[in-house]
Amino acid sequence: MSSRKGIIDVLRLRRITGSKEYRELRDIRTASDLQEFRERHLRALLLHAYKRVPYYRRILGEVRLIQNGSVDLSKFDQIPLLTKDLLRRFGNDLISADYTTRRWYYNTSGGSTGEPVRFMQDDTFQRKAAATEYYYYKHMLDIEEPAAKRVILWGSERDIFEGSIGAKVKAVNWLTHVTFLNSFRMSQRDIERYIAKINSCQPELIRGYAASLFEVCRYAASKNFPLHSPKAVVSTAETLTDEMRQLIESGFNTKVYDFYGSREATGLAAECEHGSMHVFSFSNHLEVLDDDNQPVKNGEEGKVVVTSLHNYSMPFIRYEIGDTAIQGVGTCSCGSMLPTLAKVTGRIVDHFIRDNGTTVPAQFFIHLIGVVCQTGAIKKFQVVQEDYRKIRILVVLRSELPRSYMEDVEGKIRKVMGDYDILWNAVDDIPKSPSGKYTYTRSLVH
Question: CATH number of the domain at 352-443, please?
Answer without folding.
Answer: 3.30.300.30
